[in-house]
């Protein structure tokens, strides 16, 4: 998973380095960017979720957060708990984005836990959807499975794929090689 980490601060901080390091320890790719309201900054389109340091207020940062939410990308907005509560940063007119945006105060002890929980939760929620065509005999069989086993087609097919995943040594080898390269 690609995690886009953004901040409106003037420079990268130790907290940013810790976030990047932690995301990488979770075996995810971390992309860091300072958002400058004085310059036109192009966001990254190639990411799965965003972690936004919202301690420094910025219109450009707010726009980046809303753009990510508009693209249905999960956004974790974090700020040091010693600062003023930022949970009210979304206006009621922007409530449609609340589904994609979480706002959390952190301290040195719980920052990693907040990030880990958010990434795990969103990883679980993020699903690929695809449709495919089947012949009438396969369709009839899936209809029979639905009726006789009281199981949905999707659950039945997911079960078949999970069983195959457990047995596929070639895929396991691919994953091991991929993880060893990191």
General description of the model:
With 182 residues, the chain is α/β, with parallel strands linked by helices. It folds into two domains: 2-125, 3-Layer(aba) Sandwich (Rossmann fold), CATH 3.40.50.450; 136-181, no CATH class. Helices cover 45% and strands 16% of the residues. The chain has a five-stranded parallel beta sheet with strand order 2-1-3-4-5, with helices on both faces. The two termini are 13 Å apart. The relative contact order is 0.12. The model has no long low-confidence stretch (mean pLDDT 85).
List the helices and strands and how they pair.
Layout (H helix, E strand, L loop, with lengths): L1 E6 L6 H12 L3 E6 L14 E5 L5 H12 L4 E6 L20 E6 L4 H15 L10 H14 L3 H15 L1 H13 L1
Parallel strand pairs: 1-2, 1-3, 3-4, 4-5
Strand/helix succession: EHEEHEEHHHH
- The CA-CA distance between the termini, in Å, is 13 Å
Instruction: Using the coordinates shown, work out and report the CATH topology of the largest domain.
Output: Rossmann fold
What is the gyration radius calculated from CA atoms? 21 Å
Residue-averaged pLDDT, rounded? 85
Sequence stretches where pLDDT stays below 50 over 5 or more residues: none
* Biggest sheet character: 5 strands, parallel
Proportion in β-strands: 15-25%
**How many structurally independent domains?**
2
Q: Total number of β-strand segments?
A: 5
Using the 3D structure, state the CATH architecture of the largest domain.
3-Layer(aba) Sandwich
* The CATH C-level class name of the largest domain: Alpha Beta
Instruction: Name the structural class.
Output: alpha/beta
User: How much helix is in the residues?
Assistant: 40-55%
Strand order of the largest sheet: 2-1-3-4-5
């Amino acid at each position: 998973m690609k995690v886009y980490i953004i901040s409106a601060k003037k420079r990268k901080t130790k907290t940013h380095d810790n976030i990047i390091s932690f995301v990488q320890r979770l075996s995810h790719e971390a992309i860091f960017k300072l958002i400058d309201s004085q310059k036109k900054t192009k966001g990254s389109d190639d990411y799965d979720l965003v972690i936004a340091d919202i301690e420094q207020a910025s219109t450009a940062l707010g726009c980046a957060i809303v753009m990510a939410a508009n693209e249905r990308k999960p956004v974790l907005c974090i700020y040091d708990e010693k600062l003023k509560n930022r949970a009210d940063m979304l206006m009621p007119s922007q409530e449609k984005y609340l589904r994609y945006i979480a706002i959390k105060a952190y301290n040195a002890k719980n920052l990693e836990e907040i990030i880990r929980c958010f990434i795990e939760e969103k990883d679980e929620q993020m699903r690929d959807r695809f449709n495919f065509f089947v012949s009438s005999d396969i369709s009839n069989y899936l209809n029979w499975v639905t009726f006789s086993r009281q199981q949905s087609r999707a659950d039945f097919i997911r079960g078949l794929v999970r069983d195959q995943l457990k047995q596929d040594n070639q895929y396991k080898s691919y994953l091991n090689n991929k993880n060893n390269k990191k």
